[in-house]
C-alpha cells in the first residue's frame, strides 16, 4: 500500500519525485520541497505522473491544521496527468491514460505519486492537463451545489459569495447556462467586472455596498431561496438575512474562518430556515456517482458553456507563494502548480 506520509511512496521503488511536504502546521513557510521515493502501486492503486496540480482553499485548511491529518504528510487533492502503472484489481484506467482527480488522500503537490485508483477519471481528448487540474474539484463542487444540494431551475435567483474566485467563476457560467439569475458578491470593482463577464446577473461589492440591502432591492424584498457561502465567518449572518422563509443556507467553506457556534433559534427567527454543510466526498461517494458528476462537468466545458479561467500559475517549488496569494485574496479564477 502507498504510504501517504511519503506523498505516495511505496515499497519497491519505481523512482523519485519532488513533493511538497508538511511536517508541522502553520503558515505558508511550513511547506517544504523534498525528494521522495515512489514505488509500485498496490491493489486498487495507480501511479500517476502529474502534469498540473490544482490549488484550493481546502489545502490551506490542512496546512493550518483546521482540518487535521497525520504529520508528516503531503498536501493537495487535485491534479491531472498520465497513469504510469496500475496495481491488481484496477480496470477502469490503464497505463498511458490521461486522467484527473480531486479527492483525498492529500499528496497532489508532487511530480509523481501512488494513489487510490478509484478517484481517477479519464480526461476527454479536448481537455488539457492544466484545464483538467484546474476544473475538477471546483467544477464538481458547483455540479453538486447546483444539481443536487439545491436543484436550480431557470428563473431562480440565488446569492453566491466569492463570485470571482475559482468556484465562483464556474458557478457564474453554469448559472447563466441554466437561466439562473446569480447575485454574486466580490471585494473589488475589478472582481465585479470579472463576475459579470462570466455570467453573474447582479454583482455586489461587499466593501462598498450593504449586501442584505442590495439583495432586498434586487429581489423586490422577496430575498432568495438559497445562499451558497464558502466564505464562512465574515458572511454567515448576512447570508441568513438574505434568505426567504424556509430558504436553504449552503455553507460549503470558510475562507475567512470557521463559523462560530450559533443557536438554532437563529434559523427559527428568520423563517424556519434550513442549513447544510456539504462536502464533495458525500456526493461523489462511489464510482457511479463520480463518473456521472464528471460527465456532467466535462460536457459543460467541452460544449463551451463553461470556460475554465486559470489566472495564476506557480512552479511546484513556489507552493508557499501560491498559498500567500490565495489567502490574501489576490487571486481570481484558478491557481495551479506546474511540476
Automatic annotation (TrEMBL):
The keyword Oxidoreductase applies. The keyword NADP applies. CDD domains: QOR2. Residues 26-337 form the Enoyl reductase (ER) domain. It comes from the Bacteria. GO terms for cellular component: cytosol. InterPro entries: ADH-like_C (IPR013149), ADH-like_N (IPR013154), ER (IPR020843), GroES-like_sf (IPR011032), NAD(P)-bd_dom_sf (IPR036291), QOR-like (IPR047618), Quin_OxRdtase/zeta-crystal_CS (IPR002364). It holds the Pfam family ADH_zinc_N. This is Quinone oxidoreductase. It comes from Massilia forsythiae.
Amino acid at each position: 500500500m502507498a504510504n501517504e506520509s511519503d506523498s505516495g511512496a511505496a515499497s519497491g521503488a519505481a523512482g523519485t519525485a519532488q513533493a511538497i511536504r508538511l511536517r508541522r502546521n502553520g503558515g505558508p513557510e511550513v511547506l517544504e520541497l523534498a525528494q521522495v521515493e515512489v514505488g509500485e502501486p498496490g491493489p486498487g492503486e495507480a501511479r500517476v505522473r502529474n502534469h498540473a496540480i490544482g490549488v484550493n482553499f481546502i489545502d490551506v485548511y490542512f496546512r493550518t491544521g483546521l482540518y487535521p491529518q497525520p504529520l508528516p504528510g503531503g498536501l493537495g487533492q487535485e491534479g491531472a496527468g498520465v497513469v504510469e502503472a496500475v496495481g491488481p484489481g484496477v480496470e477502469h484506467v490503464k497505463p498511458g491514460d490521461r486522467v484527473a482527480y480531486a479527492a483525498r488522500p492529500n499528496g497532489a503537490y508532487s511530480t509523481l505519486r501512488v494513489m487510490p485508483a478509484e478517484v481517477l477519471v479519464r480526461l476527454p481528448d479536448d481537455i488539457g492537463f492544466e484545464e483538467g487540474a484546474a476544473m475538477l474539484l471546483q467544477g464538481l463542487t458547483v455540479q453538486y451545489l447546483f444539481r443536487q444540494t439545491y436543484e436550480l431551475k431557470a428563473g431562480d435567483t440565488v446569492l453566491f459569495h466569492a463570485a470571482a474566485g475559482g468556484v465562483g467563476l464556474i458557478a457564474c457560467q453554469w448559472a447563466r447556462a441554466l437561466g439562473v439569475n446569480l447575485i454574486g458578491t466580490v471585494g473589488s470593482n475589478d472582481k465585479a467586472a470579472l463576475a459579470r463577464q462570466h455570467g453573474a446577473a447582479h454583482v455586489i461589492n461587499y466593501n462598498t455596498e450593504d449586501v442584505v440591502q442590495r439583495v432586498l432591492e434586487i429581489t423586490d424584498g422577496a430575498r432568495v431561496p438559497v445562499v451558497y457561502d464558502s466564505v464562512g465567518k465574515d458572511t454567515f449572518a448576512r447570508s441568513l438575512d438574505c434568505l426567504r422563509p424556509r430558504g436553504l443556507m449552503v455553507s460549503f467553506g470558510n475562507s475567512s474562518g470557521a463559523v462560530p457556534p450559533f443557536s438554532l433559534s437563529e434559523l427559527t427567527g428568520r423563517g424556519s430556515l434550513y442549513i447544510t454543510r456539504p462536502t464533495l466526498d458525500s456526493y461523489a461517494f462511489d464510482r457511479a456517482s463520480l463518473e456521472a458528476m464528471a460527465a456532467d462537468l466535462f460536457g459543460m466545458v467541452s460544449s463551451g458553456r463553461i470556460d475554465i479561467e486559470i489566472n495564476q500559475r506557480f512552479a511546484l517549488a513556489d507552493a508557499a507563494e501560491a498559498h500567500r496569494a490565495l489567502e490574501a485574496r489576490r487571486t481570481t479564477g484558478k491557481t495551479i502548480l506546474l511540476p
